[in-house]
Design goal:
The complex is a heterodimer. Chain A has helices at 10-32, 36-62, 70-85, 127-139; strands at residues 90-92, 100-105, 142-150, 159-168. Chain A starts with 9 loop residues before the first helix and ends in a 10-residue tail after the last strand. In chain A, a hairpin with a 7-residue loop joins strand 1 and strand 2. Helix content of chain A is 44%, strand content 16%. Chain A is of the alpha+beta class. Chain A has a 4-stranded antiparallel sheet with strand order 1-2-4-3, covered by helices on one side. The radius of gyration of chain A is 18 Å and the shape is globular. By secondary structure, chain B is α+β, with helices and mostly antiparallel strands. Chain B has a 4-stranded antiparallel sheet, with helices on one face. The longest helix of chain B is centred in the N-terminal third of the chain and has 23 residues, at 27-49. Chain B is globular and about 45 Å long. Classes of the chains: A alpha+beta, B alpha+beta. Chains A and B meet through helix 1, helix 2 and helix 3 of A and helix 1, helix 2 and helix 3 of B.
């Protein structure tokens, strides 16, 4: 008796595997560290390492030129989210000076199937995203800060990732040369 | 390779580098944690993706499912070769294993290879476990990027 070949939805399985793997590493970190702050830091560090390498992949795929202002950068970040995570966050809440903006998500693929227990309200579950943004911006000579202003896991209506441009990083002169 | 796959590869690499610390004394323990991580992912993933499929009865049928559908979802290709002695030992051979394909083509870095396959061992074990098959999965690597997974099914008494 032969079975009809079962077709799985590759894309869905793929993103679920990603979500589950991420969840598994977060829960492992919670076991490894006693302090939630340390977990946040470690997630940020992992994100940073990923971002540093991911920006290469992004630039190679999109052939993008250098951004002239933060608005252009914001558009590219939005596009990168679409490419890598399949979501399109809205760009909102620009500051008057134009050096801060928010990415607002209706749904966050990292937090699918996730609920935070009450005693872990300090955990920044998706902190890897902050690290990844920081790392990739640093590779294109931008120093930015990222943090979550709102998080659906903590009962907010949307998830809001705030990005602040600090300064341009200048090429440093190699040590020993003047 | 699509952008989403790159992301998973990077996350995997990052997990491996976090888990396996440099000191060789704790490496076995680190690998076992890594395997457990794969196990829990495999277990949950099967829970999710098989909920609309009809029930599998035979062990071989389940193994075939792992080699074809499951593998092509996770690793973008089917297993190249499946062998069995019909007594509970299966060997899955992948001639171009995804996590090795960017590492090396030959025997260079062979020493570092096992930690990149450990997660997958757990993934297979977890998947089988949720099908009701208890097993031990080990990996054999001779030259990258090919890779053999040995599955030893534990007979239920």
């Amino acid at each position: 008796m032969s079975r009809q070949s079962t077709r799985l939805d590759v894309k869905k399985v793929n993103s679920e595997l990603f979500t589950l793997t991420y969840g598994a590493i977060v829960s492992q970190l919670m076991k490894d560290y006693e302090n939630v702050e340390d977990v946040n830091k470690q997630l940020d560090r992992m994100g940073y390492n990923i971002g540093v390498r991911m920006v290469e992949d992004f630039l190679a795929r999109t052939n993008s030129a250098r951004c002239n202002d933060l608005r252009e950068t914001a558009d590219k970040i939005q596009y990168a989210f679409k490419m890598y995570l399949g979501i399109t966050p809205a760009l909102t809440n620009w500051s008057a000076a134009g050096d801060e903006f928010s990415l607002t998500f209706d749904s966050n693929p990292l937090t699918e199937f996730v609920e935070l227990p009450d005693n872990y309200q300090n955990l920044k579950y998706s902190n890897v995203l902050c690290g990844a943004l920081r790392g990739s911006c640093e590779m294109v000579q931008m120093d930015v800060s990222c943090w979550f202003a709102q998080d659906q896991l903590k009962g907010d209506l949307a998830t809001e990732l705030r990005i602040k441009f600090n300064k341009r990083l200048e090429d440093a002169i190699p040590a020993g040369e003047d | 390779m699509s952008a989403e796959d790159v992301l998973f590869d990077m996350l995997h690499a990052e997990i491996v580098s976090y888990m396996v610390s440099k000191e060789s004394e704790t490496e076995d323990e680190d690998l076992s944690v890594l395997e457990h991580l794969g196990y829990s992912c495999g277990w949950r993933l099967i829970e999710r993706i098989t909920k609309e499929l009809s029930r599998y009865k035979e062990e071989l049928e389940i193994l075939k499912f792992i080699c074809t559908d499951f593998w092509s979802c996770v690793y973008k290709k089917q297993v190249d070769n499946l062998r069995t002695n019909h007594q509970g030992v299966y060997v899955l051979q992948d001639n171009e294993f995804r996590f090795f394909s960017k590492l090396s083509n030959g025997t260079q870095y062979l020493k570092a290879a096992p930690k990149y396959a450990t997660f997958t061992c757990g993934l297979i074990r977890g998947a089988l476990e949720n099908f009701g098959i208890a097993s031990i999965v080990t990996v054999e690597i001779n030259t990258m990027p090919s890779c053999k997974f040995h599955i030893n099914v534990q007979q239920s008494s």
